[in-house]
Amino acid sequence: MQTSRLNKTTIWGRLPAFLFCAAVLLSTTPRVFAQDDPAVTRRTAAELLDRIHQAAQQQNYEGAFVYQRGNFVQTSRIAHYSTRTDGEFELLESLDGKPRKMLRHNDDMYTFVPERHLVVVEKRQNKDSFPALLAVSGEQVLSVYEPKMLGDDRVAGVDSLVMELDPKDAYRFAYKLWADKKTGLLLRAQTLDSSGQVLEQLSFSQVSIGVPVDKAGIVNGIRNLAGWTVVRPPVEPVDMAAQGWQITPSVQGFHMIRQLRRPMASREAGQPPIPVDQAVFSDGLAAISVFVEPVENNSRKEGTGDSGATHVLVKRQGNFWITLLGEVPQTTLQQFASAIEYKAPK
């Protein structure tokens, strides 16, 4: 099997589910408190996870955050507003490298690519982009992670609570989370390997929470698309079992959360797009995507790769390429791959 390294892509080129993972070594360490009764710790951790999820959707905040993976650093600006009448409005803008900007109203996303004068309009599929977590209850997360409450710290000038979530098996990484004491907003998230080393990090460098709603710029940007080439990629739900695929991983805690079909441009000129099916599994923190596409040519190779916390596994199964991608150890992807079976539908 050929081993390769994933290309270092910017935060804009990665799947949304990857915006949650993060990595940087800290110059300060939070004060560690003695552990409470395990039942109290578990209840406190579950409540904090629920608050983190709710705060990302319900709070009004503006700021800048930094994504770090090894020597790679990407800074982005974010503004999020929640209204009773019109729902959520969000701006996410890259401050490094090529300009990129995303505007969102509820689940309608508009991604602007200035150098191509292109705007991609699509429905939001992933709701775990920093500072959000995946949309499951704290109790579900704690079925496969052991919580530790590590006391108080400060991030971007905001007093925070620190929590570590250690995996109960070897099939996932550990996480350390910093959340605003008052609102629960996630301020920093680290992904840790089995030795406690930081693989990836996302962290606010500046943040203002509870700001007045200022959605005018987002609304105007969405409405004024004159002069832009607007592309609406077709994405539709798919029943992969009906297509003949059975994916029954034995890794505890991972549940399928969605199945989608996206067309991919053929390498052969004049040929129709290739359908690519995607099944996404999550344990509440980590996500794994399984992509299935027909074999178009034989130039592609099987292999593995990694970048920070993200690993990839590519294998051929009959007339299909199977690609597994997720912020989990390589052994987890191998477990998933071994559980994939295909039986042509009649």
- Rg (CA only): 21 Å
**Could you estimate the helical fraction of the residues in percent?**
10-25%
What overall form do the CA principal axes indicate? globular
CATH class of the largest domain: Mainly Beta
Secondary structure tally: strands = 22
Q: What's the story with the biggest beta sheet?
A: 12 strands, mixed
- Helices, by number, come to 4
**Secondary structural class:** mainly beta
DSSP strand content: 35-45%
What is the CATH homologous superfamily assignment of the largest domain?
Lipoprotein localisation LolA/LolB/LppX
Distance between the termini: 33 Å
CATH topology call of the largest domain: outer membrane lipoprotein receptor (LolB), chain A
Low-confidence stretches: 1-34
Q: How many structural units, i.e. domains?
A: 2
Annotated CATH architecture of the largest domain = Clam
* Strand order, sheet with most strands: 8-9-10-11-12-2-3-4-5-6-7-13
Mean pLDDT rating = 88
Q: Helices and strands, in N-to-C order? A: EHEEEEEEHEEEEEHEEEEEEEEEHE
Describe the structure in your own words:
This protein is mostly beta strands. The chain is globular. It has 2 domains: 2-230, outer membrane lipoprotein receptor (LolB), chain A, CATH 2.50.20.10; 233-342, Phosphorylase Kinase, domain 1 (2-Layer Sandwich), CATH 3.30.200.100. It starts with a strand and ends with a strand. The chain has helices at residues 38-58, 138-141, 216-223, 330-338, and strands at residues 2-3, 61-69, 72-83, 87-94, 101-105, 108-113, 118-123, 145-155, 158-167, 174-180, 186-192, 198-209, 229-231, 236-237, 245-247, 255-264, 274-282, 287-294, 303-307, 310-317, 320-326, 340-342. The strands form 3 sheets. The protein has a 12-stranded mixed beta sheet, sandwiched between helices. Helices cover 12% and strands 44% of the residues. The protein has 4 helices and 22 strands. The longest helix has 21 residues, at 38-58. Belongs to the RseB family. Residues 241-341 form the MucB/RseB C-terminal domain.
